[in-house]
Amino acid sequence: MINSVLPYIALWVAMYHSLNISYWLTLALSLLAAGFLVRIFIIVHDCGHGSFFRIERLNRLVGIPLGLLVFTPYHRWHRDHFIHHSTVGNLDKRGIGDVETLTVKEYLELSKWGKIKYRIYRHPLFLFSIAPILLFLIQHRIPKSYMSFKQRLYVYLSNVAIVGTIILLMWWIGWREYIKIQLPIIYFASIAGVWLFYVQHQFDRVVWKRSKEWSYESVALEDSSFLKLPRVLQWFSGNIGYHHIHHLSPRIPIYKLQKCHEENETFSVIKPLSFREIIRSFKLRLWDEERNKLISFDGLKV
Q1: Which helix (H) or strand (E) holds 103?
Q2: Residue 293: how many CB atoms within 10 A of its CB?
Q3: Which of 173, 252, 237, 165 has its CA nearest to residue 200?
Q4: Please, which residues have CB within 8 angstroms of residue 108's CB and are 6 or more apart in sequence?
Q5: Could you report the per-residue pLDDT of 14-49, keeping only the tens digit for each?
Q6: Helices in 19-122 by DSSP H: which ranges?
Q7: pLDDT digits over 270-285, tens only?
Q8: Whole-angstrom Cα distance, residue 188 to residue 276?
């Protein structure tokens, strides 16, 4: 908590003072601040799983306010994320808490306009530069139809708290200054977060199955990647690159994922994603049930 939240606040203050020096300096500091914001988001993520602290109430007391810091309504996001954990890799239960991915058959059955929309959505330019900021600034503000009244209320209360904080900061330092500071931070952090989530479940070796063949344990290891990042990036991403272990047992806290991987012989056969696999993953768009793999549009057989 100390080495994540305090540096972020310090960098935010430093960015404010850097505005009088050079906005290029402000943007440079925003990249570092975004790294700490990603780390804070991973803490919120662990609190939602009840794994960051042993005491459940403490997870909520920390997770809810930190969720506001990363523009994420705590209860809404974790409801979707829980569904993601219980349905990941299940072709019959897609659509909540994941990156929308159609099968070849579903894509071919779309109208011409439907295919255009899907291609735009799955294009890296949209998926990694526009969608992230829309997700954190707009989509997280809107309750979903399947939510209960209590869950909707939590979203509204989170929105009020976020908007109230923004208004207070704008009144204190000025609206232009606030936007110049906060917008690049949330933009860079959201891009990093969406990229991390994407490569954790969209790669060449991924295995997706229908409900009758799906099992939690096997899919956790086959559908979740092992992303071995440089030590600095691993620290900023809260060890979430050990995603295969996280999906196998979400109650393992982020600060013990690496230790778990290294101490259990079971995980020695898990190969980390190569740089080539990561780059190739950006081209994967559709699930081919005949070939049992993710393919690009170029690999589409019409």
Answers
A1: strand 102-103
A2: 16
A3: 237
A4: 302
A5: 999 999 999 999 999 999 999 999 999 999 999 999
A6: 23-48, 56-69, 74-87, 104-108, 112-122
A7: 889 888 889 999 999 9
A8: 23
